Amino acid sequence: MTLDEIKPDQECEIVDITSEGIMGQRLLDMGFIPGTRIKVIRNAPLVDPVEFELKGYNISLRHSEAKQVEVTLL
């Protein structure tokens, strides 16, 4: 399951980052590290972006970026 499939108010744990190169490194730099818990806060009305709570911070990603993060529901 990927992060873009998670609904608002659901929590999950990051399993893997499937993107390589610059995008994969960017996600890792922002704290999207395997084993980290993440919660979906809300989806924007026009699809992008999606807001997440990660390590006490709110971070927004496009759905195309969130598809690169594999997760499991908690």
What are the main properties of this structure?
alpha+beta, single chain, 5-stranded antiparallel sheet, SH3 type barrels, 18% helix, 74 residues, 2 helices
Distance between the termini: 12 Å
Indicate the CATH architecture: Roll
SSE sequence, one letter per element: EHEEEHE
Number of helices: 2
The count of strands amounts to: 5
Percent of residues in β-strands = 35-45%
State the fourth-level CATH superfamily. Answer: Ferrous iron transport protein A (FeoA)
CATH topology: SH3 type barrels
CATH class designation: Mainly Beta
- Which regions contain 5 or more consecutive residues with pLDDT less than 50? none
Q: Could you give the order of strands across the largest sheet?
A: 4-3-2-1-5
Number of domains: 1
Shape: globular
The share of residues in helices is 10-25%
Report the mean per-residue pLDDT as an integer: 94
Q: Which sheet architecture does the biggest sheet show?
A: 5 strands, antiparallel
Coarse structural class: alpha+beta
Question: Rounded to an integer, what's the Rg over CA atoms?
Answer: 11 Å
